Amino acid sequence: MRDRVRVVVQRGGRRGRRGALARLLWVGAEAITTVGVVVALLVVHQVWWTNRQAVAAAREQVRELEHAWGAGGGRQPGPGGGADAGGGGGAEVGGGGGGEPDVPVVEGASSGPGTGPGAGRGSAPAPGGSAGGGERPVPAAAPAREEAYAVLRVPRLGLTVPVAQGVDKRTVLDKGYAGHYPGTAQPGAPGNFALAGHRNTHGEPFRYINRLRAGDELFVDVRGRRYTYVVGKVLNETTERDTGVIAPVPHSTVRPDAGYAEAGSYITLTTCTPEYTSRYRLVVWGTLKS
User: Fewer CB within 10 Å: N-end or C-end of the chain?
Assistant: First the structure.
């Protein structure tokens, strides 16, 4: 009788261990599933929701700027630009899709006013000069830090995006704005009007600037005045420390054959590349149309 009792106890112990193992596996599976759902929700928030928020806020900012300028009465053409060129404020801000947040800022760029990065090759022309000759354009005034003060329009991309002073990630770029590098020129002025923008997430306004080609026009509206730039060159890849790309005479310190050698009035667009990473920088350059 005692032997039989011992057999029953042993079988019960095995069943108990098996039950404990099954419960442990079940808890582990639930934990993995929960973590997976949380990660998926974070990805959806980062990829989709931040885009929706930033695009909506950027569109509203464009409307506010145009309302403040009295856009309904038409814009004053700047050098080389017609009042109706490039479409109105109803164009799309940013593009579709999304990915991990990038930081398109060129590392080492100046954050203080009036200290343009990399004096580099050449200097700004004396008053009276412009990228294409002709009369000197009336440059836009420097705004307060982190203030949205201009609108960039890129007809080829169907892009309309507000431009704010500074390239701070949280207060400028993550709002879906293009950020103006402090210390670089203002629109219409001699030197280099240099901008940064996200390529993925947070409105991703510069996602498709790799599609720009020589001859494409870029319009910058400031207080009802329009400045027209013409794309001249594209640098498909450079390092984040290549500060020469936003110098007064833009050029690459990594690839000496890329960029310009003469003073003028330029525009520079910078963003991250490849998509969904911040490993390198993609650069588009243009000159002010006289």
Answer: N
Nearest to 153 by CA among 233, 65, 226: 226
Q: Which two tokens stand for residue 75?
A: 């814009």
Contacts of 63 (CB under 8 A, 6+ apart): 89
Say yes or no to pLDDT of 123 above 90: no
Q: Letter for the amino acid at 132?
A: G
Q: What is the pLDDT of residues 22-59, one digit of tens each?
A: 778 777 777 777 766 666 555 555 566 778 888 898 99
Is 59 a residue of the active site? Answer: no
Catalytic entry in 198, 202, 225, 251: 198
> Would you call 52 a catalytic residue per the annotation?
no
| Residues 102, 167 contacting (CB under 8 angstroms) | no
Burial 28-39 (b: 16+ CB within 10 A, else e): eeeeeeeeeeee
Is 252 in contact with 242 (CB distance < 8 Å)? yes
| Per-residue pLDDT tens over the stretch 74-92 | 455 555 444 333 333 333 3
d(CA 157, CA 288): 19
Whether residue 213 lies in the annotated active site: no
Q: What is the pLDDT of residues 233-274, one digit of tens each?
A: 999 999 999 999 999 999 999 998 999 999 999 999 999 999
